[in-house]
Amino acid sequence: MRSRSFAQAALALIVLSLAATPACAHVERGQAAGFLAGLHHPISGLDHVLAMVSVGLWGAQLGPPAVWLLPVTFPMVMAIGGFIGLIGVPLPGVEVGIALSAILLGFVVAREARPPLGLAAALVGIFAIFHGHAHGTELPPGQSGLTYSIGFVIATGLLHVTGITIGLVHRWRAGRIAIRVAGGLVAASGLVFLWRAVA
After folding, report:
1. Residue 69 burial (C-beta neighbours within 10 Å; 0-12, 13-18, 19+)
2. What residue range is the signal peptide (predicted)?
3. Phi and psi of 88, rounded to 5°?
């Protein structure tokens, strides 16, 4: 009974996170300055939030060592993408890459896919480049790229931790089902993001 209540509470958290405001995280051009702006940026767009939480959910499904490797890989590689964006190096198809990240990360969570660990980390790392570049290009001239970058890396890590925490329900059958349903919803949201990116 207690485990069922916990699973229901976790499902409610998942639904609430999916119902977050669908603002696009890339509309704050000229506003991103300093640590607090960097901290806020990843949570200001549903596309980023769903992808970051999905990394944590997938890690929780896979268990050790993926549960810590994937959430460490993403911010580290994202910082590289952020640096590329900060110095003004263009990266084609950033919005498409971000939408694809939601689709594929949602899909692997929905399927509870278990590829080799290296492949899972590579997939997460590729998408991290796009997310990082999107964050990096938001820094206005003359502002501190370092404090801004620290902020968005920390926020990303916290979103991964959120996914891992929700993923604790994976130990129960109802929780496993709830996580897979959430993955399907993330993938469906990614299709909407993709349509917006190419429309």
Report:
1. middle
2. 1-25
3. 85, 15
Reported confidence tier of residue 140, pLDDT bands at 50, 70, 90? low
Alpha carbon of 46 to those of 26, 42, 53, 75, 189: distances in Å? 11, 9, 10, 18, 9
Q: What is the pTM of this model?
A: 0.81
Residue 23 in tokens: 């603002």
* Cβ–Cβ under 8 Å, residues 33 and 139: yes
Provide φ and ψ at 129, rounded to 5°. -60, -45
- pLDDT of 30 > 60? The answer is no
The number of beta carbons lying within 10 Å of the beta carbon of residue 28 is: 17
Beta carbons of 91 and 129 less than 8 angstroms apart: yes
Half-sphere exposure (Cβ direction) of 142: Cα atoms closer than 13 Å = 2
> What's the gap between Cα 107 and its chain centre?
13
